[in-house]
Amino acid sequence: MKKIGVLTSGGDAPGMNAVIRAVVRSGISAGLEVFGIFDGYEGLVNDKIRLLNKGDVSDIIIKGGTILGSARLEEFKLVEVREKAVENLARHGIEGLVVIGGDGSYRGALALTEMGINCIGIPGTIDNDIDSTDYTIGFDTALNTIIENVDKLRDTSSSHHRCSVIEVMGNRCGDLAIYAGITTGAEIIITKETGYDEEEVLDRLRYFEEKKQKRHSIVLVSEKITDVHLLARKISLHTGFSGRATILGHIQRGGSPTARDRILATQFGDKAVRALLNGEGGRCVGIVNEEIITIDITEALQLTKKSRKPLFELHDRLV
Ligand code: F6P
After folding, report:
1. With a threshold of 0.85, does the pTM exceed it?
2. How far is the CA of 11 from the centre of ligand 1 (A)?
3. Which residues does a 6 A CB cutoff place in the pocket of ligand 1?
4. Which of 4, 122, 165, 254 is the most interior residue, by most CB within 10 Å?
5. Which residues are marked as active site?
6. Residues 6+ away with beta carbon under 8 Å from 9
7. Looking at domain 140-253, which of 3.40.50.460, 3.40.50.300, 3.30.230.10, 3.40.1190.10 is its CATH number?
8. Ligand 1 centroid distance, CA of 118 (Å)
9. 58-73 tens-digit pLDDT
């Protein structure tokens, strides 16, 4: 193998640039030519492909976003669309690909591998919803962004005897909410795993206020579960707190990556290049019990999410 490519796909995540840097530099050090593919799979199909050198990735380890751009391309499911991508790769002589993204991106990587282009997936998403790895790139940075913002909301909630209802991202995965809930001392955490019962939330808030004499409360809610503005109004109506809702939104996807994300990104990028050099394809990189591993994408996509019950129990003991 002489030439490989790298692309970022799906929602961006802080640390993607650090992965790109590691892939480019590790690849060049191993004697490979490394091509950047712009705008995810869309760039593969429309031939937005350019050779990168070590200088092209200078200074990007500290930057959020992705210098390659990212996109979601539904049509990549169609074989005729993927054939165009394979043709473009063949024209450039690219035999292997590193795909940085979430599970949707992994499916594209698997399909391309089946068409003769060895692909290695790297988990890049703030959601931490890829079950073959303990941590995805961007999760730690997003978590720290949430903590910073919830700490600020706590200040003002406390001054005004308010309950702050804060919605965080995660798609269908509650990890951002549970980790943020524990690290900010939130009173209530709502995720897909806990389920949502509005009456129970109101009861608990009344208990915190009346029995525990709390001056303020924080309720952390995973997105796609309930309307946080509506919940805040109900809190104002049915508890002694005045409710206010904040949706943190895309702010969680930006910013300079944390040390943890930079290190993980560097290890993952290097591991993916080694895997391609070993002739591996259709596999993805991860960290499991502090060890950097690769596993088959097919197997990775079949794993089920580990329960966060121990974390919820820990939270309940401390609240
Ligand atoms: O997968 C990352 C993520 O930020 C999710 O947490 C969120 O549900 C989704 O992407 C938002 O997507 P978009 O940027 O397309 O609005």
Report:
1. yes
2. 6
3. 11, 102, 125-127, 169-171, 223, 253
4. 122
5. 127
6. 40, 41, 70, 71, 72, 73, 99, 100, 101, 102, 104, 105, 108
7. 3.40.50.460
8. 27
9. 999 999 999 999 999 9
